[in-house]
Amino acid sequence: MFAKNSKAYSVYLLFRFVCSLAVSMSTVLSIVYHMEVVQLDAFQLVLVGTVQETSCFLFEMPTGVVADLYSRRRSVLIGMFLYGLGFLMEGALPWFAPVLLAQVVWGCGDTFITGALEAWIASEEEDKPIDKVFLRGSQMGQIGGVLGVVLGTLLGNINLQMPVILGGSLCLLLGLVMVRIMPETNFSPAIEERQGLLKDFVCLFKLNLGFVKGAPVLLALLAITLCGGLASEGFDRLSTAHFLDDTVIPVIGPLNSVTWFGVISLIGSGLGILASQLLIARMEKKGTVSRTSVVMSTSAGYILFLVLFAVGRSFWFMLLVFLLAGLMRTIKEPVLAAWMNDHVDEKMRATVFSTSGQLDSFGQIIGGPIVGLVAQQVSIPWGLVCTAFLLLPALFLVPVAGKKRD
């Protein structure tokens, strides 16, 4: 796969694979780690995620501007090193305050990568169909995620801190490798004449704001992203607690509660890889797919399966609908990103993608505490139902975006 592709595309696939491996290794048992080692309650679990997303929200726009003004490659490298530092801090210091601080560090690192990576590969591979590029990158990320889940689960059964620390170390190693092999040949700064960092930031922000205001399709897609953020934090943070508190997890041989979460993540990644391959094959056969249909059907499916997961009490039923809800999100995200890319000016790609990431983070900041309080005051299942309903506006926004041929 790598040998027959150009250098930038090969590096992109390699980065997606190894980065996902490291992040999956660090996070596959993070909720279990937070509950059993750090001993966080339901509200603290959501608060940890909210602090991370607040960091993403605050740093997303400045880091996007850095990528468009200075270098998208440099932005990705900075993000990778911050990822590693944050995970090492989280794994080595298992107390509430250091864990919160770690979310700030690796959340900031995520903002340097988000937007910059997509903008970098879109510029380096302008001749390739971007839907296929993003889907293949997503698929490689899922394959790396599978390996990360296996390693993280095996290591977590020995010590829950170990996969977090080793995942952080791998992030730092990947950053060092990327310094040597990551090319950047098609980058041109959004502003040629510099007036100082602050003035450049304000100027690019105004250009970005004016561009977004004049692109109604892009506005609708950004609003869909906001809805996705609102409807994701509760699912990410409360689903494990729902499994632990509201059903009986069967013990089958070596499958204890820790191992089960690794297996669930592994199955989810496998389904995502298969679904991405089927979508890529359909694109190769027909030339394209209807982005409107994909985003609409996956959004509706996510709402339905999440509600079913929330009301379920049988472990096997909950497992099925949980996997299907996660699959809907896995399919939607790269298609939505490719759709957005077609309505973005090349010189402002990273900034617009960062705006998208900022809206996603803002949605999680708002949605997380809401569903966390519902879960704490009423029940975890009702918190999950609330999470699902927060995505409902997206069902009305998708047809708006689809009025222009996609």
Description:
The structure is a single chain. The chain is mostly helical and 406 residues long. It has two domains: 181 residues, MFS general substrate transporter like domains (Growth Hormone, Chain: A); 205 residues, Growth Hormone, Chain: A (Up-down Bundle), CATH 1.20.1250. Helix 4 packs antiparallel against helix 8, helix 12 packs across helix 14 and helix 15 runs antiparallel to helix 16. The N terminus is likely disordered.
Structural key phrases:
mainly alpha; 406 residues; 17 helices; disordered N terminus; Growth Hormone, Chain: A
Note the topology.
Layout: H1 7-27, H2 30-36, H3 42-69, H4 72-92, H5 96-113, H6 116-124, H7 130-158, H8 162-181, H9 197-213, H10 216-230, H11 233-246, H12 257-286, H13 291-311, H14 315-341, H15 349-377, H16 380-389, H17 394-402
Helix pairs in contact: 1-7, 1-8, 3-4, 3-5, 3-9, 3-11, 3-15, 4-5, 4-6, 4-8, 6-15, 7-8, 7-12, 7-14, 10-15, 10-17, 11-16, 12-14, 13-14, 13-16, 13-17, 15-16
